[in-house]
Amino acid sequence: MKVIRFPLLWTGLLMVWLLLNGSVAPGHFLLGAVVATVGCWAVRSVAPPSPRVKNLGTVVELVWLVIKDIVRSNIAVLGLIISGREARSAFVNIPLELIEENGLAILAAIVTATPGSAWIQHDRRRRMVTIHVLDTGDVDAWAADFKRTYEKRLVEILQ
């Protein structure tokens, strides 16, 4: 077991402690080290487990798809704005196979980074995510594409 699992957090907490006290005296340094250690131990209980990446090729493919979709979505949103056409927005409920916490966080980051979509809610018990989509003509096709493009790859990578 590592004594300090989060060395950057520990160092940051110690530095903040010293800055707040305005002193680097040995007593403040020792007390700051104790506070930083206790803080890191507290974080351990809420930190998700370290992911085990199973397919590096799929990681590269996923990153490429995300970059491509971000560019494509930016162009689509710009086209929607320029055309003046009214958006066909919808809330899309998508059942998920993905249960790994790191994978869900990555999936939420992908949705958030892609213009025209927003992660609204995740129901762990029902294994369902609700995403708001700015412009879609077919909710079912959008959900199927989302599962095929993102969720399937994250399941391959992490589960």
**Helices and strands, in N-to-C order?**
HHHEHEEH
Mean pLDDT: 91
Count the domains. 2
Quaternary structure type: single chain
Gyration radius, to the nearest Å? 21 Å
Q: What structural class results from the helix and strand content? A: mainly alpha
Give the proportion of residues in helices: 55-70%
Strand content: 5-15%
Task: Report the sheet with the most strands, covering strand number, pairing sense and barrel closure.
Answer: 3 strands, antiparallel
The spatial strand order of the largest sheet comes to 1-3-2
The geometry reads as: elongated
Terminal CA distance reads 24 Å
Q: How many strands in all? A: 3
Q: Low-confidence segments, ≥5 residues, pLDDT <50?
A: none
What does this structure look like?
- This protein has 159 residues and is mostly helical.
- The chain folds into two domains: 7-44, no CATH class; 56-158, no CATH class.
- It is 60% helix and 12% strand.
- It has helices spanning 7-21, 26-44, 56-83, 101-113, 139-158; strands at residues 90-95, 117-123, 128-133.
- The chain has a three-stranded antiparallel sheet with strand order 1-3-2, covered by helices on one side.
- Strand 2 and strand 3 (128-133) form a beta hairpin.
- It is elongated and about 65 Å long.
Could you write a compact summary of the structure shown?
The protein contains five helices and three strands. It is mainly alpha-helical.
Descriptive terms for the model:
159 residues; mainly alpha; 2 domains; 3-stranded antiparallel sheet; 5 helices; 60% helix; 12% strand
Write the layout of secondary structure elements.
Blueprint: H1 7-21, H2 26-44, H3 56-83, E1 90-95, H4 101-113, E2 117-123, E3 128-133, H5 139-158
Antiparallel strand pairs: 1-3, 2-3
Helix pairs in contact: 1-2, 3-5, 4-5
